[in-house]
Amino acid sequence: MTKRTRLGLSRRAWTVLVLMAVAAAAVVLAPGASSSAELQLVVLDRDGRFRDSVAVGPEVEREPHLPGAVSRVPLVLGIRNAGEARARPSRLELSVPERVRLTDADGRQLVAGTGAAGPLVRYAFEREFEPVAPGRLPELLPGPDTLWVEVVVPFVYCIVLADSVPEFIPAPLPDPETLRSIRIFYAFEGGDLVRRQTGILTLALDEVMVQRVATHEEPTAGPAGPAGPTPDTTRLERIGERTAVCGDPAEPTSVHATVWRTPGDGRFIVLASGGVVRKHLYDLDGDGILEREAWDGDGDGRVDRGRTIRLPIPEMLLPRLQGTATGTGP
Q: N or C: which end of the chain has fewer CB within 10 A?
């Protein structure tokens, strides 16, 4: 006959309940297990305090390294824990607007992710993070804790005409108000986090920092004519390559640029679309200004038309100077 307690439970059932209660108490009393962590990315402001929203004045370094950039802002980042449990992430992702580039101290753009992120560019950081305790000062990011934000305002846009030849036209000056507020979306994950934790950093830039300074004359183009002489390809030095997006954002066209250095320190850029070379661009003296272009208008493989131009080399065509393993693609 099964013996029962005063509550009417069998001894076996009572024993199970006691064990469950002890286990629950152990979980509650275990260090760091009373509640979840809440990691937040914060940035050091001019007053030496970590915040999730900071104003950046024109007193910071304005000399950017990337072509087309108008300002350069240093970010000293830290991790704050607003929860009640210690936590150690293994990965931090930053997603920034397309007009923003993240660079290292030497001005080299960090390696961006290749996954689709809509109008955002994603950077991922996989590091040996320290455990972040609640109620303490923020932990600086391991390794180089300072990232640099460069705001890019292009001089030219790329379009594709009916003959599928990429063309470059002057870019209108955007409203500075649309550039002054930069929202950086972040996400912590991995390690001992039980869930992905996200948030937003906001940078409010002074109006002076987003003004595009005209460093070149307005682009011009002469009448079309013969293609002109072809450079001596036996004496070219390959600099690098880059794939750019050209045309209507709803139906973009990929343009692959291969950049070569000529004997006179100029640059020769070959543009291909759909695997077919469609245009040659020439910076004859290495001053960053294109003086001539030639193109294949009918796609027969022959570059047979050309003209003189005055056009700053579009930033989208230049190979990126990649940083170190500070940031890596996912």
A: N
Beta-bridge mates of residue 44: 50
**Contact, 266 vs 284, CB < 8 A?**
yes
Residues of the chain with CATH 2.60.40: 39-155+172-210
* Fold of the domain built from segment(s) 39-155+172-210: Immunoglobulin-like (2.60.40)
Highest mean pLDDT among 63-67, 84-88, 125-129: 84-88
**Cα–Cα distance list, 98 to 147, 219, 274, 299, 327 (Å):** 17, 24, 24, 31, 17
Interatomic CA distance for residues 161 and 228, integer angstroms: 22
What is the C-alpha separation between 148 and 150, in angstroms, rounded? 6
Q: How confident is the model at residue 235 (pLDDT cuts 50, 70, 90)?
A: confident
Neighbours of 192 (CB within 10 A): 13
State how far the alpha carbon of 37 is from the alpha carbons of 29, 82, 100, 125, 239, in Å: 16, 7, 30, 20, 47
Tokens of 291: 């003086």
DSSP one-letter code for 328:
B
What are the tokens at 218?
């307005």
Is the pLDDT at 244 greater than 90, yes or no?
no
135-166 residue pLDDT tens: 899 988 887 668 888 888 777 888 887 778 99
